[in-house]
Amino acid sequence: MPLTHAADWYLRGGSNVAFAGTAVPDIADDEMALCGLDRLQPVLQAVLKPDEWRKVAYVLARGGRFADQGTAFKDGRATLPMANTMNVYYEPLGISRNSLTGRRNSGTPGWTPPAFADGTPMRQVHSAQDWPFLLVSQKSVLLNSYANGVARLRGIAPDNPVSIHADDAARLGVKTGDAVAIETPGGRVVGTALVRRGVMRGVVAIPHGYGHRDLGARGRSEDDHELAALHGSGAGVNLNDLGLRDPTRKGLSVWLDPVSGTAVRQGLPARLSLA
Predict the structure, then answer these.
(1) Secondary structure (DSSP) of 100-139
(2) Predicted confidence (pLDDT) per residue in 31-75, tens digit
């Protein structure tokens, strides 16, 4: 098979996905039009076999292939676990040192208790009693931080729901669709609850890339040209409003990851309540 063009590679890869195990159904014409895939039909038919292209389009329309949630776990364990252990050592990290403490970084995977710049554990400053949840950033399968300008995607995922485990939701009296307040030591926002078992108990997950204040969320004027705001492009919760400052550093400093230097957005101490 030639790999002259990108479609030669990606569409055939899509065929492998579509036919893995039990093949997916063929996509219907109306769904092709609804998802905007009808414009790709000539390319799909040119690269793929007659019995392949509609199945690949079915996968493209969904952004992948997904199993039913009920098949993911059996007796509390994942049904498709990794068979072998993988050992990883990253030498550039292993020979480097923390610029603030001077301690050598680990070049192998490991767990380090979340701590501020001087090594003070996060939970020593923000106790689990006061902040019982841990807030994590989740990546949407449909939108990223700059795709809010695509109207088709906004129509499917207009905002970013706040995922909470069913047991936590029952304890707090929260149901899917309820307005909930998420608060961290750095801020407070209100979002829409999504009750599911796809997050751990005690964890609140919010997709990032929403809640824009610019990037189409407000109109602009340049000379005599008026650029109107994109309806709905600023919807949802902005995770930046929930970031923490590092109380162990002088002045105003956000809590930073000690290796990458990026703002910490995983495992933020939080609490949740009905708004």
Answers:
(1) TT-PBPPSS------B-TTS-BHHHHS-TTT--EEEEEE-
(2) 999 988 999 999 999 999 999 999 999 999 998 998 888 888 888
